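User: We ran a pulldown and think these components assemble together. Before we commit to crystallization trials, I'd like a predicted model of the whole complex to look at. Sequences follow.
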Amino acid sequence: QKEVEQDPGPLSVPEGAIVSLNCTYSNSAFQYFMWYRQYSRKGPELLMYTYSSGNKEDGRFTAQVDKSSKYISLFIRDSQPSDSATYLCAIDSGYSTLTFGKGTMLLVSP
Amino acid sequence: ETGVTQSPTHLIKTRGQQVTLRCSSQSGHNTVSWYQQALGQGPQFIFQYYREEENGRGNFPPRFSGLQFPNYSSELNVNALELDDSALYLCASRPGQGTDTQYFGPGTRLTVL
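Assistant: Here's a predicted model for the assembly, 223 residues in total across the polymer chains.
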């Protein structure tokens, strides 16, 4: 079993839709959870960072962590065509290295 | 922009050759990590440098090596290139060794023929 599992998609939605992206992880020692957005031919950019169970909101983005289920989610409200990108979940075990999921490609059509 | 730059942008090499990729960290960041991202995959951790010493390594063979310089710029060297080394190579810097946010550069796309 991979340490971090993420459905690669692609996920296609119309503009304005609510998007739900998810990852599961296997190691209960993981403590810090991140979502990165990566546009084509670019490096990943950090969207959300959290270290506790519960929700964290930033504008149209909400990150949710459920440590009991080892499940993390990213919700995007009022999705825009500019949100079309690959979304990577990443987990920091506390040893300063990140373990990434494969990434989910999101396509938002106008 | 994250303030992390990488060079070159693209590179084509043949199998068996050696390559050096370069990264300039964000000012004040003394920790740099390198990741390999194959097509359709998430980035995989190669190694990390803190104050010019390697202090963490992923599951990569010794032909992947690195250096960090006093000005916190760094290099990734790959010897005896293999076709499977074709990937986007990313460096990420952060201000310390803890769980501070890592800032990624745009990457170097390496193609091995």
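The two ends of chain A are 37 Å apart (CA to CA). That may be worth checking against your pulldown data before setting up trials.

User: Thanks, that helps.
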